[in-house]
Amino acid sequence: MNTAPAFYPIGTPETPWGEAERAEWLSRQSRQRSYEAEVLSAIEGLRPRFDVEEYGRLEYGSESFPLLAIRSRDWRDDLPVVLVTGGVHGYETSGVHGALQFVDQHAADYAGRVNLLVAPCVSPWGYERIHRWNPLAVDPNRSFREDSPAEESAALMRLVAPVRDRVLLHIDLHETTDTDETEFRPALAERDGKPFAPGGIPDGFYLVDDSENPQPEFQQAVIAAVEKVTHIAPADDNGEIIGSPVVARGVIEYPLKQLGLCASITSAPYKTTTEVYPDSPRATPEQCNTAQAVAVCAAIDYALAHQ
């Protein structure tokens, strides 16, 4: 898909937003679904089998969002830690529900083998608004650094800090959607006062490896497992996916730490960011959720076999 608007309706082209533009943007955002009904209720249903903790609370105006994490009930200090995160971009639905599906259907398979720490919905305000940013027009997934401007990111880093050097694997569950091109990239360009360069959206699943510590065999093991559930995104005519060179089938690389991405918050030897394409005519929401859960299982299986 390559269709994009000619302009974004807020601000002056090539002039960064000020407070007035951010306020106008915020006024246009509306609640479209319920974090409590769709996410918190699912987490509550897991309490009989797992430990659930509130690791923070977001206060935005009159709204309050508890941030919940799910832990293995049989946590042991001698076991490696597996970190699963979803909903860093709240609008990326299968990241949230794929993480919950993994816990519900597969987490028990790893009891006594790893300590699981799952934060299924890092950005609940974005989940409800179906948006990439938080209400300050800040992208949490570019904010995982000291003095983070996003409380969503800061809260997760505080949660992970006690175990960050014991994490064997961190898998961060994302989506690439058509609205990336029609809404979020134009908004980003306008917010930052930069020209918008139209691009394309890859049709299929792909992974983002860490260019500072690439693990190609690990990434390919995840791709091979997910391919049984949904199709893998091909490279475009330039040999790229979303502007980055394809280094192996279905895999690109980013400098995770430099960009402040969620997958950079631990010293795990195995890190990956999943990207599902929910707008594909070849994929259903159920397939997208299952692809995320399968990716988590494949990642854990590989990490345990190669630790």
From TrEMBL:
It comes from the Bacteria. CDD domains: M14_REP34-like. Keywords: Hydrolase, Metal-binding, Zinc. Its cofactor is Zn(2+). GO terms for biological process: proteolysis. GO terms for molecular function: hydrolase activity, acting on ester bonds; metallocarboxypeptidase activity; zinc ion binding. The keyword Aminoacyl-tRNA synthetase does not apply. The keyword Hydrolase applies. Gene3D superfamilies: Zn peptidases. InterPro entries: AstE_AspA_cat, Peptidase_M14. Residues 31-307 form the Peptidase M14 domain. Pfam families: AstE_AspA_cat. Belongs to the peptidase M14 family. This is Succinylglutamate desuccinylase / Aspartoacylase family protein. It comes from Microbulbifer donghaiensis.
